[in-house]
Specification:
single chain, alpha+beta, 2 domains, 1 helix, about 25% helix
Length: about 100
């Protein structure tokens, strides 16, 4: 089962820790300038990394060498609630033989 914990440190700074005990710093980029990823950016990273894992698994099952993978994801924010992502665009660049 996947689990995560987010702990408030100070001001608008938080640390998120997953079940593997790896952590990431999060913050809003308000008056402090921000020291970590914005939560909306982390959500985009999550979407892109899940896509990347699926692509690598597919290539491994096809026994097709993959020498590079880059996913650039862009999210458009909703005007009503600026922290929410309304839609995203996710071009994928694959590198390999064949």
């Amino acid at each position: 089962m996947a689990e995560a914990t987010v702990t408030w440190l100070q001001d608008q700074i938080f640390v998120g820790t997953g079940s593997t005990k790896h952590s990431v710093v999060l913050s809003s980029h308000g008056k402090e300038g921000g020291v970590g990823m914005k939560p909306s950016e982390l959500m985009l990273v999550t979407l892109a990394s899940c896509t990347a894992v699926d692509i690598v698994n597919i290539f491994e099952k096809m026994r097709t060498p993959l020498s590079g993978l880059e996913i650039r994801i862009h999210g458009s924010r909703m005007l009503i609630h600026l922290g929410s992502i309304q839609k995203s665009n996710c071009p994928i660049e694959l590198k390999g033989m064949g």
